[in-house]
């Protein structure tokens, strides 16, 4: 089901894309990996609801809602931004999640910042009853365990494994299961220094963050990125999302062109999914009169 696509560059450099985005129609890419053992743990604990946190266009919110529908768990999304109350119909991500059965609690940015605090979580329990808590972005030990299943025996031929980084769960799982000869390159989609978060979960010292391709920060884009995504799609028929995978593939190809990789390198980029976010991004780009992503 998940195919790998190869692209050749000069100096005998091979770039392959592992299509984790095709794992499941709605529980996309790394979010499928991250939710797999969390759903099993929720069921083992006898919970009937999963609660999690996310922003208005969050891939994790969409995936959690879809997983809840598929596995018979109720889902509650604590969403950053009180102003979104009553605006679900205008937002493709939240509409999708609602149609999967997710219920929402919209909170102020200030309240959202308390998402890991026990008192805030206790308030949520009093309001909504018992739930299985999945952290923002889905990263915990169960998520990392799921992401350790991304690389398989077919992937041992690669010298470099590249992936997008948000909270760091995905790269941690990949680094844990990489072979000793493989180097793991993470492309943060935001400006924050994520090394300490990754070090909590990654057991080996085989990974490195490439911090030059965040394009100004989380969910920030520019015309060169959007044009790159459209061009890449036209040439390869592989869609990329503007928040994560577009920045990663842009970065890897830029590094190939700038001579970062030695002759004969075999590079595997993990397509972590996130394509559901394109609709929301396009709405915003269109409103500003900017170039949009072709689908
Ligand atoms: C969430 C997400 C990531 C980041 O994963 P982390 O485990 O949070 O680092 C990368 N790519 C896509 C498409 C995502 O949706």
Automatic annotation (TrEMBL):
InterPro entries: ACCD_DCysDesulf, TrpB-like_PALP, TrpB-like_PALP_sf
Molecular functions (GO terms): D-cysteine desulfhydrase activity
Record keywords: Pyridoxal phosphate
Highest taxon of the lineage: Bacteria
Catalytic residues as annotated in Swiss-Prot or TrEMBL: 58
Residue ranges occupied by any Tryptophan synthase beta chain-like PALP domain in the UniProt entry: 14-273
A Pfam cross-reference name: PALP
Reported cofactor(s): pyridoxal 5'-phosphate
Keyword check for Oxidoreductase: no
Modification sites for N6-(pyridoxal phosphate)lysine: 31
Family: Belongs to the ACC deaminase/D-cysteine desulfhydrase family.
Protein name in the entry: 1-aminocyclopropane-1-carboxylate deaminase
